[in-house]
Here is the input.
Amino acid sequence: MLGRGFFTEGVKTVSNHLLGQTSPYLLEHAENPVDWYPWGEEAFQRAKDEDKPVFLSIGYMSCHWCHVMARESFEDAEIGALLNESFISVKVDREERSDIDSVYMAFCRALSPSAGWPMTLFLTPEGKPFFAGTYFPKEGRDRQPGLRQLLELVRDKWATAREELIRSAGDIVSALARQPETEPREPEDSLLQGALWLYLRDYDQGFGGFGRAPKFPMAHSLLFLLQQGEKRGDERLTEMAETTLLRMAEGGIFDQIGGGFSRYSTDRAFLVPHFEKMLYDNALLILAYARAYRLSGDGRFLDTALRTADYLLRELRGPEGGFFSAQDADSEGEEGKYYLFTPEELRELLGEERGAAFCRSFDITPEGNFEGKSIPNRLRSHVSPGEYEDDFSLLRQYRKRRTSLRCDDKVLTAWNGLAVWALCELYRTCREEKYLASAAAAYGFVKNNLRDGDALFSAFRLGMGSGRAVLTDWAALLWAALALHGATGSEEYLADACRLEEQIETRFSAPEGGGYYLTDRGGEALVLELRESEDGAMPSGNSLYAWALTRLSALLPSEEREQRLRKLLGWLCAEAKLAPTGHAVALLAVSDHLEPPPTVTVVLPAEAQGAEPGFLIPPEVPYRAMAPSGEKPLMEGKTTFYVCRGGTCFPPSNNLEL
Here is the structure.
């Protein structure tokens, strides 16, 4: 074995250009026989100098199929030789460079019947794609071509029909770049009703969730259904969301022993997950479970939110307060190995009687439910997990001794913003100080380590920031500031929110049309300028920003902010008309614009100055705390609430009534 990051090519020793990167995903490939480059000018200049196409591979550390493709192909000497001879190979961590991932995912969706990760593309030396796909095995099987055959085909086409490939790449870029500008659409309740009809149509009555396998948690869709169920008094909508949340909490997609949700379920019943755990999923689900608890009072929702938050604090929180991005699906090369159990293990660990009871409650059987072993779940027993707290603690320690679980310890701005937001809302729901303290620490970490003057990095690891922040990063951080303001009443966080809003307007606003660009206008120019509206696993930056603007407009009303919000919502509504259920966060913003929640001013007596009044007020309700004034005096010397709803302000009261 040669030193890290080196491979042999004939008799010459060549350095892999990923050596020295900070991304764990890129460093995983530093010993490949492929002469990988990180994304950058050096790789594309070499492609121009040597007149070679670029092979672009995009993935992330906790991705199971990324590992499979790496083992099958990128660690293979034959594939390495073929890539090194005929291509310039570029490796991208989609989480570190979400701008590159989003741009080339747009091409992948346009060119391929499937889109996902690992993402595989062939580009001209100018970065224009002429082929896109996802996972390819080394050799073809069934009807799927193999990577070796694909590389040989592209190599030969580049040699014999290069102009055709270049022309095709130019046509593809031009087609996506000239997408027609949609006419702005006035926010209307009919748009919300259309989306609700689609959710009702696609709801899985038998197992919860929407559609069939695979099933994603869709936390933002569940938040929209909870919002609409409450506003409309429609129990069908509330029941869809609550049933789905309960099924997920009982299924294998939720780690019954350690807490936290996996990225998605491979089956209808939420039993068998794709085992990687992502910070953003768990943050969004905390928001959904906490909201369901506030609406229903059902302790099962709060219990799941708390278990998920405790997982974040225990497994993903770094020593300086920032939250790491993910845990891997694989352990020792096997998917899900960390999470699986046999009855024999449990009886040996817990004793015969207690072990047998645990197996009955969590579906641990001799035949197993996943490759001969069992994923713990409560889908049949519906047992309360509170009965097994001592067992969970013992089993968590056992799992760590039995096998390792790798953590992607990048700190990502957008995902930390969502985590801060979620922990603040959980704090306001349950009043446990540790959640607010963790939220404030994570926000402070991002401010201290990912801000560089007015600029913002997307990722941080090994003492260095990387990746220029995109709209989603700024919008998620704006929500974090708003959430901390709501949890503490501190005007400092509200001032932060205004500064973040100003930066978004300066950096991302489109000179014409609606919506905001994904990438900073002062940053690196990519082959396509995107304005994203549709939510994926992460909400789109435009939707997050629109919803945040509804909150800011309620707290700090101004004509300029209102016009800004109306323009953005007009564009989002036009986009959402084409795919309503793909725009749940935008629809949350539309609903709060059409039917704003009440706003509250809390006037505090001198002895209560600096207190946290937010615990009295639901997180959905914007409020500000202030000292008495001539316009808003105290009543009877006590804390006084001034409530306004829909343009009507009610008489002040010492008791909060919403």
Q: What stands out?
A: Residues 1-14 have pLDDT under 50 and may be disordered.
